[in-house]
Write a structure and sequence with these properties.
CATH class: Alpha Beta
CATH topology: Deoxyribonuclease I, Chain A
CATH superfamily: Endonuclease/exonuclease/phosphatase
Order of helices and strands: HHEHEHEEEEEHEHEHEEEE
Strand content: 25-35%
Number of helices: 7
Shape: globular
Helix content: 25-40%
Number of domains: 1
Distance between the termini: 43 Å
Length: about 280
């Protein structure tokens, strides 16, 4: 037997004896309110902190990122700086402009089988629709992902609920609309819901979602970082308003990302990252 053939056979046998990486490789999913560009943020304006956002994402290396408050110029910048990611999403306004519930994902690892949007209103299929006394349109961007290595699938939903104190009734209606949509999905496919819910875990919004989903922060076996997520660029967070919910997965950990550079943060929210395995 030639040396080349021996080496080839040895390589094939070694590969066959190795465990399939896909079965043991966890997924990392992030929820990140990136804070839209507002000049009144002064030293924390997007143009100043955008390299921090890129550095944070490179360090965390999530497979999927559900972003809130994203506008097209920010998405374009992230896409240039992070070429390993593809992204999708449309603006919440009727013409497709405005804030996006944009989703970035590792296109070498994941494929989008289908995706879409619905609005949190009485007419969810009407782009830009506003009811329930919202100031602005509110929406959900979703996708069915398939992992390229093993064909396993999961749904991701990403949202941003209204922020005013008087919007609690609208937030509850939004949570019920999300729950109703979840009820239409195939029961055997895992689900991850990311978002800025602009309310705390003692709210009716949380109760509605927790009926069929797990709050990663309270159910993951490992929890790291600050429980509160909104800090207004101070680093001193006082409200846990960013949540990741899951269904049908094996949670390994959840963490808030509190990294800063020279006293500056990538956003006024701490991102959340869950590590999980698909069944």
């Amino acid at each position: 037997m030639s040396l080349l053939r021996s080496l080839l056979i040895g390589t094939i046998l070694a590969a066959a004896s190795m465990p399939a990486m896909a079965a043991d490789t966890p997924l990392r999913l992030m929820s990140f309110n990136i804070r839209l560009p507002v000049e009144s943020d002064g030293p924390d304006y997007w143009e100043t902190r955008k390299p921090l956002a890129v550095e944070m994402l490179r360090e965390q290396a999530p497979d999927v990122i559900g972003l809130q408050e994203l506008v097209k110029s920010q998405a374009d910048y992230l896409a240039r700086e992070l070429p390993q990611y593809a992204w999708f999403g449309r603006g919440r306004d009727a013409d497709g402009g405005g804030e996006h519930m944009g989703v970035f994902y590792r296109s070498d690892r994941l494929a989008v089988i289908e995706s879409g949007d619905f609005w949190l209103s009485d007419t969810p299929d009407v782009p830009g629709s506003i009811t329930w006394h919202h100031l602005y349109p509110r929406m959900v961007t979703w996708a069915l992902f398939e992992r390229r290595s093993d064909g396993k699938r999961f749904y991701l939903l990403n949202t941003h609920l209204p922020y005013r104190e008087q919007d609690e009734a609208a937030r509850v209606k939004g949570a019920n609309a999300i729950a109703a949509y979840l009820a239409t999905l195939p029961p055997g496919i895992p689900v991850v819901l990311t978002g800025d819910f602009n309310t705390t875990p003692d709210s009716e919004v949380h109760v509605v979602l927790a009926r069929t989903l797990q709050d990663a922060w309270t159910t993951a076996p490992r929890v790291d970082g600050s429980e509160a997520t909104f800090h207004g660029f101070t680093g001193n967070a006082d409200k846990r308003i960013d949540w990741i919910f899951v269904r049908g997965v094996q949670l390994e950990s959840v963490a808030s990302v509190t990294t800063r550079w020279n006293g500056r943060y990538p956003s006024d929210h701490f991102p959340l990252v869950v590590t999980l395995r698909l069944p």
